[in-house]
Amino acid sequence: MMKVYMDYAATTPIDPRVVKAMLPYFTKKFGNTMSLHSFGREAKIAVEEARVKVADLMNVSPEEIIFTSSATESNNLALKGIAFANKDKGKHIITSKIEHECILESCKWLEKHGFEVTYLPVDNYGFVNPEGVEKAIRKDTILVSIMHANNEIGTIEPIEEIGKICKEKGVYFHTDAAQTFGKIEIDANKLNADLITVSSHKMYGPKGVAALFIRKGVKIEPLLHGGGHEFGLRSSTINVPGIVGFGVACEIAKSEMKKESERLTKLRDYLIKNVLKIENSHLNGHPTKRLPNNANFWFNFVDGESLIMELDYYGIAASTGSACSTSTLKPSHVLLAIGLKPHEADGSLRLSIGRWTNKKDVNYTIKILPKAIEKIRKLAK
């Protein structure tokens, strides 16, 4: 039986080239970057070289990159840090109904602390309307946070247009780009973004390291206080091996991203075309304005959790939605936001491909999926 990994949106395997670069920093080059001796200097140089590589992939200055432990931490720092640093100007924040849970939960927390949040709706494809953002901006609005692309349905948002509106209105703009960084081009200046969240483990780097781009001049309050690491914005001994790996992952993405994106888009379209041949199958998200590696569906008369287990029996790893929340067994808030009924959302399947996915993997999935769905539908009768 084949083993096929179709859940790259949840996490990616580390590229062997990244592992090779990281290994010395676990043993021989183990210094603390805050130490003044040669071991510390060696580690600090490696971190700063990685900072340049991360910054280079989004066309920003290295000193505008803050390393964190995860996209969740970066998003928390962006929202809470901006909110508390700018509360004298206003206490109104704008986001969308399809954001990642760490954004939505941060917003709920801020609401408990006196802030007001507007949650914008999306259309059936999952698009946030830029005009809706413009209308929602008030005199007391301090931040707009809209994700670059949705982690579940893959729809790529009109971020450049939204960022332009925020810039014209004098409102900070943050985008969660954890799913897009390393997959499609990100230029912070073209996107008109003041803050961008990116993650290592979504792009063949190690888990436990991420970053937040904070444009020079942005007023933000740190969440972690201590020894003043990361330009005083994120105190904590930094993950040197992880950061080194993240930097190399960015370096690889810069040279291979365009070609890989084209390859994945062809595989994705081939996958979507064949899955939609299954009776009572539907595509979630936009057919073309979506991540090159994302295919998301819902099937009538199918329970998503049962489908995942059936596919796993055949060696296929997939997901019903975000890997961060699948244990809740609640219908996806993203699928409900695009207009699906709860029982329809329950029949969802996310297939996400990546660097080591080939045509053979896709063909095997196309072969097994109809059988799995047919079995579940028969049992449900």
Labels describing this entry:
3-stranded antiparallel β-sheet, alpha/beta, 7-stranded mixed β-sheet, 381 residues, single chain, 39% helix
Describe this structure in words.
By secondary structure, the protein is of the alpha/beta class. It has two domains: 134 residues, Aspartate Aminotransferase, domain 1 (Alpha-Beta Complex), CATH 3.90.1150.10; 237 residues, Aspartate Aminotransferase, domain 2, CATH 3.40.640.10. 39% of the residues lie in helices and 14% in strands. It contains eleven helices and twelve strands. The strands form three sheets. It has a seven-stranded mixed beta sheet with strand order 2-8-7-6-5-3-4, with helices on both faces. Helix 6 links the parallel strand 5 and strand 6. The longest helix is centred in the last third of the chain and has 36 residues.
The low-confidence runs, each spanning 5 or more residues with pLDDT under 50, are none
The CATH architecture of the largest domain comes to: 3-Layer(aba) Sandwich
Calculate the mean pLDDT score and round it: 95
CATH first level of the largest domain: which class?
Alpha Beta
The total beta strand count reads 12
Shape: globular
The sequence of SSEs as H and E is EHHEHEHEHEHEEEHEEHEHHEH
How are the SSEs ordered, and which strands pair?
Elements: E1 4-5, H1 16-22, H2 38-56, E2 65-68, H3 71-85, E3 92-96, H4 101-112, E4 116-120, H5 130-136, E5 141-145, H6 159-169, E6 172-176, E7 195-199, E8 210-214, H7 240-275, E9 281-284, E10 294-299, H8 304-313, E11 316-317, H9 333-337, H10 342-345, E12 348-352, H11 359-380
Parallel strand pairs: 1-11, 3-4, 3-5, 5-6, 6-7
Antiparallel strand pairs: 2-8, 7-8, 9-10, 10-12
Helix pairs in contact: 1-7, 2-7, 3-4, 5-6, 7-11, 8-11
